Amino acid sequence: MSPRHLDTPADTRRRFRLNLDSDVVGVYSERVARFLGTGRYLAIQTIVVIIWIFLNIGVFAFEWDPYPFILLNLAFSTQAAYAAPLILLAQNRQENRDRISLDEDRRRAAQTKDDTEFLARELAAVRLAVGDTVTRDYLRRELEDAVEDIAERVAAKLRDEAPGTRSDESGT
After folding, report:
1. Residues 66, 42, 40, 27: is their CA dihedral positive or negative?
2. Farthest CA pair distance, the chain
3. In this predicted model, what pLDDT tens digit does every residue of 133-165 receive, in sequence order?
4. Non-local CB neighbours of 87 within 8 Å, separated by 6+ positions
């Protein structure tokens, strides 16, 4: 027995609490709502109504619900009274899932945008860094120019060293 506090009145009424897991109720309500929205359910309900009316029109001796079919209307009313809240509960659960999915999509879109902006900044930095570095074409042009310059110098030196072409020998 739990200790009672003297400053709290005792609850002498017994309470009946029905503890239902809302997820379990939601799952079953979605199943019922999904079934109620199918052509199979409509076909079954139509067949039941036709049989009900056929058995109660007086052809057979069963006639438990004569012509205005009050019992059938009561069955439809009861079915509608339970189906409507179950369908609404299923729609609320779907709306919650859609909201969570939308929030997740927004989070992913924001992350993708941030990643794209980061990559754009990195690409710009790489372009700037590449602009300051030597490219293959630039190096090839510089090497070709250096080879031409060396070839010209070697040719000039060879001309200068050839016999009879020296400038100091021509005057003597």
Report:
1. negative
2. 154
3. 777 888 899 999 999 999 999 999 988 887 765
4. 29, 33, 36
pLDDT in tens, 52-67: 888 887 666 677 777 7
The two three-digit tokens of residue 4, written as one number? 């009672």
Give dist(CA 71, CA 36) in Å, integer. 21
Q: Residue 14: phi, psi to the nearest 5?
A: -90, 130
- Rounded Cα distance between 57 and 19, Å, is 45
Backbone angles phi, psi at 132, to 5 degrees: -90, -5
- One-letter amino acid at 42 equals L
Residues in CB range of 156: below 8 A, 6 or more apart: none
pLDDT per residue over 28-39, tens digit each? 888 888 888 889
- What are the residue boundaries of the structural domains of the chain, listed by start? 22-114
Query: Is pTM beyond 0.70 here?
Result: no
Tokens of 105: 């999509």
Give me the sign of the Cα torsion angle 76, 77, 82, 87: positive
Backbone angles phi, psi at 67, to 5 degrees: -40, -50
Given the structure tokens 């069955």, which residue do they identify?
A: 75
